[in-house]
Amino acid sequence: ENMPYHVVLRLMEALNNKGKSLKGAKILILGVAYKKDIEDMRESPSLKLIGLLKQKGADVSYNDPYIPQIQLSGEVLKSVELSKDVLSSVDCILLATDHSSYNLEEIASCSKLLFDARGATRKLKFDNIVRLGE
Q1: Fewest CB within a 10 Å sphere: which of 56, 68, 96, 128?
Q2: pTM above 0.85, yes or no
Q3: In this structure, are residues 62 and 79 in contact, taking their beta carbons and an 8 Å threshold?
Q4: How far is CA 107 from each of CA 28, 48, 73, 118, rounded to the nearest angstrom?
Q5: What is the pLDDT of residues 115-134, one digit of tens each?
Q6: Are 56 and 8 in contact (CB under 8 A)?
Q7: What are phi and psi of 57, to 5 degrees?
Q8: Which residues of 2-13 are buried (b: 16+ CB within 10 A; e: fewer)?
Q9: Max alpha carbon distance in the chain (Å)?
Q10: Chain Cα centroid distance, residue 105
Q11: Alpha-carbon Rg of the chain, whole angstroms?
């Protein structure tokens, strides 16, 4: 399962293109469930992703309407609310699980950088969206 590593590399590039380094960057992960619209977390690549980003010095938070908190190597992270303030304050929003409840247009319009690891934003025309595999 190399997907998380690939995502982290591409995310670093996307941030570098904006003159930001991953170290110290605020990253908000959308979706830690294994699949959209469920609360199952087993095998979720998002956990690996959060671990990798933290190792590289990023300041990571997450939102998931189905999963109020996660435990990651002894640390408890709680799902943050998706307010405009939160969306606009982070350096990058990483869409990891595309839950139906996410209004991607609104999220993109508030964000500095939206990294879409799911290909869920293909219909949206925003300059600040970077899609995995494009």
Answers
A1: 68
A2: yes
A3: yes
A4: 11, 23, 29, 15
A5: 999 999 999 999 999 999 88
A6: yes
A7: 90, 10
A8: eebeebbebbbe
A9: 40
A10: 15
A11: 13
